[in-house]
Model the fold of this input.
Amino acid sequence: MTECPEHLWVEQTERLRRFNATVCADVHCHCLPGVDDGPATLTDALALCTALARDGITHVVATPHQLGRYDGTNAPAAIRQAVSDLNVALGTQGIPLIVVPGGDVRIDERLPKLLETDGVLTLADGGRYVLLELPHDTLVDIGPLLESIMAGGRRGILSHPERHAQLAARPEMAARWVERGALMQVTAGSLVGDFGPGAERAGWEWLQKGLVHLIASDAHDVRRRPPRLGMAIDAISRELTHLLARRLCMENPLRVLRGEDVEAMRRKSPPVPGIGAGRPR
Done:
């Protein structure tokens, strides 16, 4: 699963060389055709996968929406087959990208049971990490659910929490969830202003506080929601540290891909002037 595709493109080779790495993984991406609000057709999906590879990514976890308004659709077996079909198409087109199964799973009280019965997918189909999406318009305390998931031997990763306006206004709740074992995945585009000043501010503030564990693209297409991982890596390296960019954008995504422990990176230095008030300069 973590072997690289053959004949990498120059952007991928440069990314791996920059970080002395063998894999650049994106653990949250809507790249399967015709299953959710991502690409509508195979042509669209291949265009997105081309953009992912051009952004330096070698492996991507396909994370179509599950539960919520997609309840009853996007069953794990169907996602696995769609991933297999997309990999065949990528090979035919010579696009050096490996896709593995996953899901962007809406918070639901049935989750512990669904995880036990293969009702929803874990990231990379590895059985350890589940990507959790909060309801968009309400804020609920998911602490007990996180503990139930952990009791089953898995760990929840909060999907783009910085883009949830009510949670961004209550960072202490996010900090409590992290203390209870949750991991936080911030969208690369949030850090460069794609989702507005509120998400940008929250993303950078949480980075400084050590509350972020992973950066992922959450890409949906090549125009409205394109990959931004490279831009996020450059911004984090410039405004905080190269080590932090490596940990959040390269090392921890690879650990998720492999089912290994994810590491935090807590900052002890004072806040960087200007960060948290808008796009880094």
